[in-house]
Amino acid sequence: MIVATTGDVAGHRVVETKGQVFGVIVRSRGLGGNILAGLRTILGGEIHEYTEMVEDARRQAIDRMCKNATMMGGNAVVRMMFDSSEMGTTMTEIVAYGTAVVIAPE
């Protein structure tokens, strides 16, 4: 599955548009991770526990989006983007979305 943030894929042409696809995941860091991250905020700098959580959540959201595109008959997703939001004080929602298409070499 080719995933592009642009509207086209170099060396290919879009032969069919399948429609909008998305992958969503809601994640929460456990109590221990929240305590450790809270202590890191006092010292400043990167909070590795949250960075790892968000990176993992983005990968899972992309995987789910690709699965949806495959089920629709697409072999690529174009104009892929992420959106995220906080749900309450402990949860983060990550959405990967784009347009499922069928591409063919030029």
Q: How would you describe this structure to a colleague?
A:
The protein is of the alpha+beta class. The chain has one domain (2-105): Hypothetical protein apc22750. Chain B (Translation Initiation Factor IF3), CATH 3.30.110. 35% of the residues lie in helices and 43% in strands. The protein contains two helices and four strands. It is elongated.
User: Strand order across the biggest sheet?
Assistant: 1-3-4-2
Helix share bin: 25-40%
What percentage of the residues does DSSP assign to strands (E)?
35-45%
- Secondary-structure element string: EEHHEE
Please count the helical segments: 2
Give the CATH topology.
Translation Initiation Factor IF3
In one word, what is the shape? elongated
CATH superfamily annotation: Hypothetical protein apc22750. Chain B
Please provide the count of β strands. Answer: 4
Write the layout of secondary structure elements.
Layout: E1 2-3, E2 12-28, H1 31-43, H2 48-71, E3 76-87, E4 91-105
Parallel strand pairs: 1-3
Antiparallel strand pairs: 2-4, 3-4
Explain briefly what this protein structure is.
The protein is an alpha+beta fold and 106 residues long. 35% of the residues lie in helices and 43% in strands.
Question: What attributes does this structure have?
Answer:
106 residues, Translation Initiation Factor IF3, 35% helix, elongated
